[in-house]
Amino acid sequence: MAELKASLACAVLLSYTAFLLSSAVLAFVEDLDDTFKDNRMDDVWLVDFYAPWCGYCKKLEPIWHDVGAELKNSGSPVRVGKMDATAYSGVASEFGVRGYPTIKLLKGELAYTYKGPRTKDDIIEFANRVAGPAVRSLPSRQMFDHVLKRHDVLFVYVGGESPLKEKYIDVASELIVYTYFFSASEDVLPESVNLPELPSVVVFKDGSFFTYDEYEDGSLSSWVNRERFQGYLQIDGFTLYELGETGKLVAIAVIDEKEPTEENIRLKGLIQRVATEYREHFNRDFQFGHMDGNDYINGLIMGEVTVPSIIILNTSNEQYFLPSEPVETLEQLVHFINSVLDGSAQAYGGDGIFQRIKRVAYDARSTVMSVFRSSPVLGCFLFGLPLGVISLMCYGICTAESDDGAEELEMMKREGLTDEEEEEEEEEEERRRQAGKPEAPEDEEGEVERDEKSAVEKKTD
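^ that's the sequence the OP posted. Answer follows.
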């Protein structure tokens, strides 16, 4: 008995501890209502706008609590909250919420939408980056080297106060959702970095550096947007979506990394060489990389891409280009890219009306197939039940029409028999007139007929 009481006491203690821990975690994420918009200006807020019925929102919920806990424990000034966008639709629409879940960082009058992977580390990194100053200072060579090691792509303004710095700050405020922006004096940079003039905006990536030229590169915002990726990178579905915002065409080597055959390695190497050796020719218009497997590409083009192969995607209009012959050399690959650039290459796909209809049909078929593959019983229930109901409705309609037709036919027959009886009566009256017999009134018609029958019976006797 004593052991039983001890076990019960331990169970109660553990339950109470778990309750306290869960309550502490929940305290890191604040539930927001319609008073939030009037009280938010004094703090930086990271808010998840969700819908209670949204499956993606439910999947994000435990991650969101982890984000709130880590930001709170790290001493971050960012407050984490969540809002039911269906209950407070007016507030959500003011912040430009169009889908669920939507993650926004609100800083003063500015609202930044998070578009990255929904993982704890990525969301926290986004919050810390956007919550801080748009442009961070690098005061020493040691600090510059430390930051350069941490970032694959590093934007730095070099020089003093100038109109270019003002533009740089504006661009940083706009594009800080994607990357960091720094400023430094010339003596902070490595001695190997020789700038043609000051002030300058420099991007450090791919083991080198490149300087912004207003006359050749256009607006600073467009240049930063194009240069915020490495020249060559591994591409997945999310990265491809982000690359679409740069306006570049994407040249991809579709390979199988699980089976690094000679052909896989060769095509991947060709794409890497073009990205490095032909940067000056293609960097403005093309992004280069490789993708593991063809599943995502097949769904994108609604077709089948062989592995390994090379494909160029135009994410702005859903067109794609394939080499007309196997790519064996670097020169053949460069020729293919140039043909896409000058418009002589055959374009497939697109966003025309036919392709849109095809996309709807393809997505519908893919959805049905995925449901049946994952759960055949659920697929039969979801699609078999509606089909059965529709079939019963059609059967009922057809049966009702048949009964109505039979009733109409019966009515027609009855009407036909009535017409025949009327015709017989008219003929009988005509014969009586011709025989000189007076017409019997309607109420005596039955008696006359009985007298005639009696006379006939007497003659028979």
